Amino acid sequence: MDTATGISVRRHAAIAHVTIDRPERRNALHGPAWQALGDCVEMLSADTEMRCMVIGGAHGHFCAGDDLKESELKLGGARARAYADLIARVYARLDEAPFPVIAAINGACMGAGMSIALHCDFRIAAPDAKFAVPVARIGDYYPLELCARLVRLLGAREASAILMLGDPMDGETADRAGFARLADDPLAGALDMADAISSRAPLVVHAMKRAVNAVLDGRLEQQRPEIDAMIEAIKSSMDRNEGRQAFLDKRPPVFRGQ
């Protein structure tokens, strides 16, 4: 692990496990950590053998948000705008990764940690996980695009409680709301899901991720040409032929992303 950033990555065949490890701050992220996390996702996205990424936190917490003690947002001006752009790029890279990203969530998942979870494709949460966006408690704000994604993923009732009251939501409530899947061991559950995803057809998984995110963010018409092109590529792919032949042969398919 890079102790300066608190971000580490381990590979398990076609699966990457990224860990946030800043225990003194409950894994809250500062500038070097945000930069390292974005660089990590970008690096993994360039690897054509990568099939899934799991992101979790060490020492009993997922991520307590942006580290307010070291955040450059409080400085205002150009430095604050550059820092906000850095964080936004991390969210964009999670969305644009050509593979699913799974959040394994224990303990605190607050503020920017919640925002990271919103930009993951799946969330596996412990019963005692604490999801929160405490802006109403500290006199801050939550960006409109994140409010929209929170409402669409969680529903208006629970999103309102999180945003207007600042009340935390536990893992069991998140499971009932359809926001997360419950697991006593979120990391084990996330790695099991990643293993299953890695056996699926990569071209299809990538296209379906793009489609889901386009609908989620209200950009379906804008992204329709790109998604249609991905679907056309699937129609003529070797993997499509392999899937059909494997079905006829009554054997598991072996997909190669081609």
From TrEMBL:
<protein>
    <submittedName>
        <fullName>Enoyl-CoA hydratase</fullName>
    </submittedName>
</protein>
<dbReference type="GO" id="GO:0006635">
    <property type="term" value="P:fatty acid beta-oxidation"/>
</dbReference>
<dbReference type="InterPro" id="IPR018376">
    <property type="entry name" value="Enoyl-CoA_hyd/isom_CS"/>
</dbReference>
<dbReference type="InterPro" id="IPR001753">
    <property type="entry name" value="Enoyl-CoA_hydra/iso"/>
</dbReference>
<dbReference type="InterPro" id="IPR029045">
    <property type="entry name" value="ClpP/crotonase-like_dom_sf"/>
</dbReference>
<dbReference type="GO" id="GO:0003824">
    <property type="term" value="F:catalytic activity"/>
</dbReference>
<comment type="similarity">
    <text>Belongs to the enoyl-CoA hydratase/isomerase family.</text>
</comment>
<dbReference type="Pfam" id="PF00378">
    <property type="entry name" value="ECH_1"/>
</dbReference>
